[in-house]
Write a structure and sequence with these properties.
Distance between the termini: 21 Å
Oligomer: single chain
Radius of gyration: 22 Å
Structural class: mainly alpha
Strand order of the largest sheet: 1-2
CATH class of the largest domain: Alpha Beta
Number of helices: 8
Largest sheet: 2 strands, antiparallel
Amino acid sequence: MKPSKSQASVAGTPGLLEIPGDPPRTLLVTKPSANDLIIVRRWVLSQHLPEQARGLSSAELEGLTPEDRMVLIKEYAKAKAGGRREPTEAESLELVCSREGVALMVWLASRKHQPITREEVSAFVTPENCETIMTLLDKALDANEEPTDPKAPGGSPSSPVT
């Protein structure tokens, strides 16, 4: 019996990532696993280095509520002590969309389906094409998803269209 489309999506049927270039490349890719996401998080944290602590001026504290002043002072003290702060969502997204981040995502999505190293992927992901490759990767990973109908009775964005 042939698996249904929903079974194929759950099973992680690979999509095709067609990367233009000289030479063009085609890779089989699947969505990242939980372990892959842990690898991405660790990489983001390793790239997000603590900011150099600089002094706080009275002008920076002026006009802030006492609560906001405490937050700023605590962040300053933590940075001064060499502590790390969690990257914001925007900072994490910027890192993942960088050349190195896109190469990591492509390697994680493709390594289970063909013999390819992270270094090989890094060689064809450039600053000029990384945005295009990330867009193509997103499309390839979403290609096996079923369309959804949130207006269906009991439907939600994750409910398959019937």
